[in-house]
Inverse folding.
């Protein structure tokens, strides 16, 4: 089964330019595509519920399916599926550790090369499903053959050199890796909370600046009007003079506070910091969804994200304590599927 999913123009306008370049979909195609409810109904009619999900980094893919079912109001149906997931990347990683394949399966494209499977299109749902099924069959044959031979440890191909060991940390690929994604999800929570927290602080200081400046202006205006009235009066009223003095003193205090507290400048600093966190958040989301073509590219991108977050944290203005506590509670109780904000496109 292969189908597009309807996308609204508003959602389409928020799509990442990098994503648009990769999948090549157009708004016209997505405007006339089936709705999430129609797609989910077709899915259930086609497959029922008696199956296991299998794919490359399948736990990541099932997040998108879960969001799709939720949008269709059928999340309860999704939860009836078996919770078991068969991850093809994990199978091939095991095969590599045992020396059954010559290279580490860092991406689906590399896996195709290991088994001599041509890949005509990248990021096409049906094509990916087809080659994933082919690789699954070949991987199972490898592992079953090894088990039948009683070879359950590393083969000579891996261990013949004393210093040739599989690297301890998985590297990234076009499809990403689970370990890198864990790191990115943690950074995403920092960027997400930084964006929302600093925007909250900006709104608070803007409100306070408007109120303080507005009161100071109002009192100054009232004092000026009272002065004009007293000047034009033949016999000034002592009570009005006293009120004028009080209003003038309050206006001076409010004006001084407005200058000293500098709410507008503080709000601008928080807005700038929030925009920086938002930019980092978009970069992290792209990394989570698309991954990288090589380990060096992943390392370079992760270093850039880390350095940008470090710089934002170092230069960020202080956020009020109650706002910090609010987002600290959100970190302790993260929302489901925090690892990504999937936008329905091709399924």
């Amino acid at each position: 089964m292969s189908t597009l999913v309807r996308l609204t123009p508003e959602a389409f306008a928020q799509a990442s330019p990098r994503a648009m370049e990769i999948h090549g979909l157009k708004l016209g195609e997505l405007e006339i595509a089936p709705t999430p409810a129609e797609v989910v109904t077709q899915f259930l009619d086609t497959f029922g519920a008696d199956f296991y999900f299998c794919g490359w980094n399948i736990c990541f893919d099932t997040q998108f399916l879960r969001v799709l079912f939720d949008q269709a109001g059928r999340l309860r149906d999704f939860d009836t599926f078996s919770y078991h997931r068969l991850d093809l990347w994990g199978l091939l990683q095991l095969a590599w550790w045992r020396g059954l394949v010559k290279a580490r399966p860092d991406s689906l494209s590399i896996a195709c090369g290991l088994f001599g499977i041509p890949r005509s299109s990248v990021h096409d749902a049906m094509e990916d499903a087809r080659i994933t099924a082919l690789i699954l069959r070949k991987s199972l044959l490898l592992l079953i053959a090894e088990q039948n031979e009683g070879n359950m440890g590393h083969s000579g191909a891996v261990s013949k050199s004393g210093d040739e060991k599989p690297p301890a940390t998985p590297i990234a690929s076009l499809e990403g890796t689970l370990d890198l994604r864990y790191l990115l999800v943690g950074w995403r929570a920092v960027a997400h909370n930084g964006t929302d927290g600093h925007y909250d602080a900006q709104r608070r200081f803007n409100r306070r600046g408007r109120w303080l400046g507005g009161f100071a202006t109002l009192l100054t205006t009232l004092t000026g009007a009272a002065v004009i009235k007293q000047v034009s009066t033949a016999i000034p009223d002592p009570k009005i003079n006293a009120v004028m003095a009080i209003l003038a003193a309050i206006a001076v205090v409010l004006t001084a506070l407005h200058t000293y507290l500098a709410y507008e400048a503080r709000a601008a600093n928080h807005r700038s910091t929030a925009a920086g966190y938002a930019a980092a958040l978009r970069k992290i989301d792209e990394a989570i969804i698309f991954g990288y073509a090589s380990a060096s590219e992943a390392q370079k991108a992760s270093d850039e994200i880390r350095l940008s977050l470090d710089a934002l944290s170092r230069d960020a203005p202080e956020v009020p304590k109650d706002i910090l506590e609010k987002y600290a509670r959100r970190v302790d109780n993260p929302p489901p599927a925090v690892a990504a904000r999937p936008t329905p496109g091709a399924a």
